[in-house]
Design a protein that fits this description.
Chain lengths: 449, 561
Amino acid sequence: MLFPSRIAAALLAATGAFAAHAAISADEAKALGTTLTPIGAERGANKDGTIPAYTGGMTTPPAGFKAGDGIRPNPFAAEKPKFSIDAKNMAQHADKLTEGTKAMLQKYPSFRVDVYPTQRSVAFPKFVTDNTVKNATKAKTNNDGRSMEGAHAGFPFPIPKTGNEAMWNHLVRFNGAAYESKYRNLNVDANGRAALATEGNSVQEYPFWDNARTSADTYWRLKLSYTAPARRAGEALLLVDPLDIGTKDRRAWSYLPGQRRVKVAPDLSHDTPNPGTAGANTFDDIFIFNGSMERFDFKLVGKKEMYVPYNAYAAVYQSKQDELLKPSHLNPDLVRWELHRVWVVEATLKADKRHVYSKRTFYLDEDSWAALASDAYDARGQLWRASFAYMAPSYDLPAPYTDMFSNHDLVSRVYSVTGYIAETGGMRQTKALPEREWTPDALAGSGVR
Amino acid sequence: MSFPSRPGQARFAPRALPIAVAAALLLSAAGAQAFEFDTGNPDLSLRWDNTIRYNLAGRVEGRDSKIGNSPLSDEGTYSFDRGDVVANRLDLLSEFDLVWKKRYGFRVSGAGWYDDAYGNKGARNPAIPFPSYVGNNYSPLVKRLYHGPSGEVLDAFVFGGFDFGNVPVNAKAGRHTLYWGESLFLGGHMHSIAYSQNPLDLQKGFATPGTEAKELFRPLNQLSAQAQLSDTFSVAGQYLLEWEPARYPEGGTYLGPVDFVFNGPDGQAHPQLGFIRRGNPSEPDQRGEFGLSARWAPQALDGTVGFYYRRYADKLPQTFVTRPVPGSAQYNLIYADEIDLLGVSLAKNIGGVSMGTEFSKRINTPLNSVALGVAPGLPAQGETKGPRGDTLHALVNAAGVVSKTSVFDAATWLAELQFAHWSKVRSGASLFQGLGTGFAPACGAGKTKWDNCTTKNYVGTSVAFTPTWYQVMPGVDLSAPLTYAVGLYGNAPTVFGGNQGLGNYSVGVSADVFQKYRLDLKYIDFVGHYKDNGTAVTVANGLTTFLKDRGFLSLTFKTTF
C-alpha cells in the first residue's frame, strides 16, 4: 500500500528530514538574458557552427497561416536535409544519437534520420521570460524533489542543479495556458498494420501559466472525451496534476456512458498501461514523461548535442495518416531531425519502488525544456522502448508544442503515436474554462451518452 | 465443444452458420470507420454508431433431475438439453447523437435482435401437468423478446446547457438513464442508492454475468437536471414521467429460474389450486417518482461525498395468488410505490485505488414475500398486501489496476462487499418471508436460512479480475475476464437482494482484434443451495438456485462501426 508510506513521508517532511532544494543565487541568475537565454539555454552557437546562436526564435507566422487556424504551415518546407543517417553510417554519428535511435537504425533497415539545418525556432511571450528570471531565485522543490513551489507563469529552474529540477521544467513546459485539439492515438502492430486506439477531443490547461493569477495549486489538467473507436465514444476522462504532486498525487475521474455518472479512476499513473493507446505505452510515457517522479531517482547528467525531431511540422500538421505510419517507425521522409543541445537526465528506479522500467534516459530541449526523446530499459537492463516527441512550435503564440509523440517497443516491434492531429483540425489555443467546469460532477452533468 | 443434434432443437451447423454469415456480411458492408458525419460546421456534431453482437451459446451441464422434477422449475431446464444451442442471437444497437455547440442536442438509440435458438414452443417435463405456457406455446411477449426479430427504442431525449448567472445547468428531457451513487456490480446495485432508479435488463444480465452496469439499465421518460453551484458543490434532480418494470429472464426460457415468472408465462401448476392463471400485473402510477442529490467535493476531503433522497416505485415485484379459487385461480405481479430512500456516498482515491462506499435507508420498501403466497384481491394501485418495512443497505467497493508482472502485462480488478439489514416490518407481516415468529409460517419454527428465509443481516460480494496480454500476435490483445458473485452470509430482506451461497461465476478468454473486433469465449454457471425430497427440489435458497444446472459456454463476437 502506498497510503501508509505517504503518511510517513508527510511526517518526515514536517520534521524537516527532507531538505527542500533551494533556488539559485541572484548572482548566478545574472547569466539569464546574457550568456544564457532568459529560460536558461546557451545563447551562443556551438563550436562547429552546426547549432546557431539563439536570436529570439520564430515569432511571426509564415505566409499561409490563417490566424486562429489549428493547422500550422511548415515555415521550413523549402529546406533540404543536410545528410541522412542510416544503419551504415550511424557509427560516425553515434555520439549524437540516443540509444533508442541507434537501436532503431540497427533493427529496422527502412529507418533513417534525415538531418536538417538547426533552426532554434522556439520563442515565448514576454511574460514567460520575465517570470522565468523572477522564478529563478525563488523556486524550489520539496518532498525530495517530487513537489515544487515558489514559481508561477515562468520556468521554475532555468539553471537546474538536479535531475528533478530539470524534469519540473519539462512537466510544466509551456504550450500555451489553454488549448484544445481533436487527436488520434494510433498503434502500429508488428505486421505494420495501423489501428486506431482512440480518438477524442482534448482540452488541456496549465493553470501554472495563467499570468492573470499569482499562483496555482494545479499545474496541469486534462479533459478527454473519446469519439472513437465507436465502442468507446462517449467515455470521458478528467485528470488533475497538482504542483504538490509529491503529497497530493494525481487525481482522475472517468465518465461512464449509459450510467451518466463519474467514478474516481484508479491509479492512472506510473507504469499503468495506458488504455488510450491500448497498452502500447505506460501512463508516465505520455509526453515522454508525465506525472509523479516518486519511483525514480533523477540525476542531471549534463548537456549534450544530439539529433532530435525538431520543427517537425510536416509530420505533426501536414502529413496524411497513411503516409506517416510505416511499419516499425514513422515515414523518415516526413520527420525532420536537427542537432540541438539537450539536457540529459538519467532516472534510476528507487530500490523500494516497482516499475516496468529499471532505468530511463530523458533528453530535454535546452530552448523549450520539453523532453524530446527517451530511452527506457526493462528490469534486466535491456533497452526496451525508444520514445520521441515531435517539436513543432506554435509561432502564432509563440510557444513550443510537443504533444505528438511516439513510443517504440523494440521487443514487440509495436509502436504507438499519440496526439496525431494533422487530419483532425490541428490544435487551437483557447480561453481557460471556468473553475467549476473542471469538477468531476460537471463532467457527469455534461455527458450525452 | 460439440453440439450433438437433437430432433426439434437448434443444431450448430445448419442453423447457426447462416446467422454468423449474415452477421459477417453486415459487418463487411458497414465499412471500417465509426460514423461521425463531417458536417463542415465546427458547432455541429453528428454521429451514428452501430454495434453488432453475435452470440452463440451451448448448454454444457446436464439437467439436474431434482430441478427438472419440480413443477416450479421444470420448463426452464427442459427448454434445452445438454449440447443444445441455447443462444444463436444477433443483436444490433444503433445510436444517433446530434450536438450543437457542445451544449444542445438530442440522442436516440434503439436495439434490434433475433435469436434462432428460440422458436415458438417451450418444453417441459412430460410428467408434470399444466405447462406455464398453454400448449407449450410461448406467449407473444416471450416470442418477441427471445426469438424476434424485434426491436425497441431505448434512449430518446433532448438536452441543453444553460447558465443561470454563472451557474452552469445541464438538463435532459425524454427517455434516458441516470445512475446515482457508487455501486459497481449487479449485486451492489440491489443494495445501492440507485436501486430501482432504472428498470434492470435482467434478461441480459443473466445471459452474461459480469456485464457492466451500463448495459443493464433501461431508460425511462423523465426530466433531469444538474447544476454546478460552485467548484466544489453540485445538485441534481430527476422527475419521472414513466414507469416500467425490470426486464426479466422469463419462465420457461433457458435462464428463466422458475416457470411462472415474470411477464411471459400464462400461469403455473399449483398442488392445491391446479392451474393458476397469471393476471395483469398491478403497476404503479406512470408519473411521480423523483430524486434529489447533492454532491460536495471539498479540497480537504480529497474526495466526493453525496447526499440523496429518492421517492420511487419498485421495479421488481412481489408475486401473490390474488384469487385462490381452484379452477379460476389467479396470481399477479405486484409493484409497490412511494418508497423513500435516503442515502449518503463517498468516493475517494486511496493509494491509487478507487474506493466507493454507500449507505442507504429504505422506508416502506417491499420485503421478501412468500412467492405465490395467498393474498386475496388486488391491492390498490401502488400498494401491496405483502410485507413492507424499513431496511438498511451499505456497500463498499474498490477498483484498481495492476501493472506488468511476470504473468500478465496488465490487469484490472474490481471488488465489492454488500450489506443489508431489516429493521422494521410495517405491514403484511404474515406474508413476510422472515426467519422468526409472527411472519410467514414457511419461515416459522424449525426453519433456517437454508429455507430461503430472510435473516436480520446479509453480506454478499462480487469480484472481477481481468488480466491482459498485449499483442499476443500482431493486432491482437488477449484478456481473461473472471467474475464471481456470491452471498456470503444470511439472506437479504429485499427482492433479489441475495442469499447465502447463491451466486454465479464466469471464466473466459477475450480477444481484442485491431481495437475493433471483440471475441469472447466464456463459461458461465450459477451456484446455490436447495433442499429436496429425493426426487424434486422442495426449497431453493434464492431464485437463481434453479439455474445451477444451466452451465453454458458462450461465444460472442462484437464490433461497433
